[in-house]
């Protein structure tokens, strides 16, 4: 058995980060199904915080209003083409992007994921997936405590544990420190970024084969 560690640096309001997660999931599934002995190997994934902070507002803002500001340099035709391209790429990995709703700061969402490291790997993965889906497919405001509480309890995390996490000042400082640490490690590249087994780095929503090649290298070195 080989243990393959992966640090994923991402933010939940990043569409490419959601695409990258789905491709990583598919790559792990393919590896376990097709590589000799792969089904016995264990993938240990740590989701690391990154803050895109699209808006400087202290409260969440309408995503379409923000897009009008951020994409003001693009023509209507260019914006339409960008939306169609993202929708097409999303559909290829099972994501149905929607562009409505509100966007705000993601610190509390990252705090929940930080807390979930004390829970099972399946719970942590379910939480990350649910946060991405809530924002990108269900047009939910994941800066809202009420929305975060609903997401976390729906996948089985205790309500008291969620409330305690969101109020934990120490965890907030730890998440901010970790975000700075990993932002420094991926300096020069954007998110998502994947640090695989400490020695291999991928950035962007990579193709499944790119992940597979690194998984195999790690496996062969371990053997």
TrEMBL record:
<protein>
    <recommendedName>
        <fullName>DSBA-like thioredoxin domain-containing protein</fullName>
    </recommendedName>
</protein>
<dbReference type="InterPro" id="IPR036249">
    <property type="entry name" value="Thioredoxin-like_sf"/>
</dbReference>
<dbReference type="Pfam" id="PF01323">
    <property type="entry name" value="DSBA"/>
</dbReference>
<dbReference type="GO" id="GO:0016491">
    <property type="term" value="F:oxidoreductase activity"/>
</dbReference>
<dbReference type="InterPro" id="IPR001853">
    <property type="entry name" value="DSBA-like_thioredoxin_dom"/>
</dbReference>
<feature type="domain" description="DSBA-like thioredoxin">
    <location>
        <begin position="5"/>
        <end position="212"/>
    </location>
</feature>
